[in-house]
Amino acid sequence: MSLFKVRNWWKTQCPTVEPAYDSFSLHCARLCIEEGEKDSIVVGSHSGQLCIYRPTGGNSNLPDLDAEDAAAEGQPAQGSPSNDPFENVFQHADVILEVQLALPVLGISSGKFTTTNKTDPRLQLAVLHPTKLCIFQIVTIDGLADHGDHTRLVTLYDHPLSKPAFSMCHGPFGGVKGRDFLCVQHLDGSLRFFEQDGISYERTLATDRHIPSPLHYLPRVDCFVTVAPSWVLECYRYQDVAEALESLRRHDPIWSLCVGEYALDLQVHQISNTESVIVMLGENNLLCVSDTGKVRFIKKLDYSPICFHSFVTGWYWEPGARLMLAVVSESGSLLLYESDQIIWSAQLGNVPVAIDRANVTGLPGALVTLGPTGALSIGYLGSEPELFRVPALNLAPFEIARCQKELLELEREIRTGVDPSDASIANAAAERDVKLYVNIAEDTVACTHPTNMPPGVAVEMCQLSMTVQVEPKLEVLQLTVTTDQAIGCSKDAFLFRDVEARSTERFDVWVFPAEPTVPATRTVTVYCSYTNKQGITRVVQKEVLLPLKLFLKPCQPSKEAQHKLTLSVVTAQQTNLGQLFAEFASDGVSTSALGLQPAGGGDGRKVTIVAAKSTNRFRVQSDELGMIGIVLECLIGRLQGREMIGPPSDGDAPARKESSKVLVTINGVPSIGGLLRSLQMHCELRKAVLKLETELESTTGQMRLFERRFVVKLQERSLRALDGILMLLKRNHSSVAKVCQQLKAMRQKMKLAQIDLAAILHLFHLCYTHSANAPGTKHLEHLTGLLTSSVLDSTEQSYEEMLLPVVRFLAQTGPLKNTGEQTDTFDEAFFYTAKQTNERAADVDVTVHSDLLQQQLQRLLGRVNDRFVAAGRTSGSGSGRNSVDFEDQPLPEAHDEEVEEADEGTRVEGSEFVALSSTASEWVNYEKMADLPL
């Protein structure tokens, strides 16, 4: 933002107050209506309004620069400063004409468009409509008494157009004197010329004109300049274009220049007796080209331009003439350039769509801006800056205790200022306005959408139905379906505008496995965000579980497994696996053990569920830690009645009500070694991806270098010199293709690693949430919130880098802090030193963050397990589990299973999972003592 602001001198609002204006809607010129007049401002809108303004500046508090000579001679100066400290007040006399035309106004121009009276100095007004070109004469009628003069618009003649128009230009085509001809450009790129004696003809330029662009006339060389759809600036001679016979016409431009972008606007100026310039405002560059096709300068813009205006200060035949450019950016800044050098920058009050320069009464060289809704203003470059003092940097060292104290104070302030009932009322109102119903079909069909599954694997999909009932009229409504990375969706977003009240709509999408792995969770969340007519935004969300048979299929149970977890169920009735997993039950399958493997199969991975013989206990075991999470979540949900299998029946409601009281506890957590190995694998794959991306950037840079050398050798027309370059091009192309294939494969491996890491984190989340000894405090909620089931890496940061500050905060603050343990402090200088001593700083960041995260996470989770074990020993409660409850009939090969289970409840150190106790009084006491807002 600029330090200075454009000072407002005069402003008004055009009759049309809707967005009906563009860069062609503003025209400033001296119409020669009366003697000694200044410039008039002509504004036309897409609604057909045509207005002519002539600001007087009678109440200006600025001195009239045109009246300085009169004041020097002792005469009173008109427009002298008044006592009014504000800008000029709009007066009715400032409007000399306001008329409503029958058609939208696309463009406005003024010139000598008639031959009736060559001595008449008045100019005519040309107005371009979509299907018609009209020529008007502005006539002033002297008023009677005190009513003043009356100005009206007289139609001289009009030209109907056979095709829709885009823009127009005028000039003395062919070098005529004292007359101006008109050229209209249609949407298809064809040109229509109109001469004053009624002659009109149509011509088409050489290249295809599918995208029209601004067209301008160069009077000095009698040529037209425009930009072709291929982003080439082309110059055509008028005599070649106007030639009637196709055989005699020159179809090619006299010169062309590749500009590489679309032209937002073109303007033409003569800067000397021997040269004219074309100034083009592109989407990213400001280009100045001479009328002979020579580039004078190219200015790279570091902002997005909206509009611009160019002018020449002084007369072009004088040596001191300067080319000035005024560009408006999308942030509302006005940047003034002299050629390619910026000389001034100021901030506008609003972002205009058109800018021009005019000499009005009392202010020569005024800046005229037109907003998208018709806000017309005249300003000047003031010299009163807005002083802004940069605050001093806070160089105090980071202290955990001080920041925690400030966080507590802010949390208490927020709690006192926010009423929790407001959120519940807003949520209830949101559910009344928009009702969202989500249903998943249990039946599956063959998948017809592309997936990353191996060839020959049968993939199925199920239908997700969403029904939205809208009560009030909404401005915007959006439906978003979010799934796990391993789950695909046929369409995940729906956007609607101006939704009618009391309307109902149903949307169906297909959900299917997209990756050759098991997802971390089967939960599909549907978000319905809407904005009502008052501008208030609300979000309604619903969750649904996908069928387990989409991802798993039954297989032979396994006797041994590396990872084991045991569930205890407190319920009055006995449950078996046949009832819980009815979709996998079949004849000949045991109800005490169930084996599940991925639907793709073929890789040997499986999960086994074993039911106890006489008590409600279950054991989930697998060699793959990431596969246990989805089965464990499904088992807990079905035991607690949150998920019912099969069609609904009359007895489901009492059963669900009874199952909601079921208490399911997990008597252990997996070893943290599996989580650390998954983090290490994710780190190695990210380093490999970064290495391949750097290699691809290097090879593509070499490709561009070889292509430039190829163009140089091609211009030399030496076939022998091309042999070496062609060999290098082919070899480099093969390298680029090879790196692209490797990068694609590595990104796929990294995606699978992210899914596996998310599944392991979700497993730890389930274990801590349903632990037999977990206290129901907010500290454990934030600990489980740390173990989310979504792992994503951004382009700038890895997942480890984003998770490390959270783990460090939990490890150094709150009930998990160990005062007797010396913790290493985070030193940013270590990272800077590592970057300077290593060529690949990105690899250093990934490795260091991953190592620190593994250390902190191992220390944090180990501390949690130790405190749970200590609390369990203090309370004296155990699992009370007996291994003889597990049947060994479904697993004939597991002969010593009872012996293996005998000491499962007593193993603490060195086992694959750690037993947890039932109390944690230390957590509760800490919460009462500090009340940390974690």
UniProtKB/TrEMBL annotation:
Q: What's the name of the protein?
A: PTHB1 N-terminal domain-containing protein
Q: Where is the PTHB1 hairpin domain?
A: 677-769
Q: What is the lineage of its organism?
A: Eukaryota, Metazoa, Ecdysozoa, Arthropoda, Hexapoda
Region described as Disordered: 62-84, 872-910
Q: Per the UniProt entry, what are the Gene Ontology biological process annotations, in alphabetical order?
A: cilium assembly
Gene Ontology, cellular component aspect: BBSome; membrane
The UniProt regions of compositional bias labelled Acidic residues, in chain numbering, are 885-903
Domain PTHB1 GAE as annotated: residue spans: 459-544
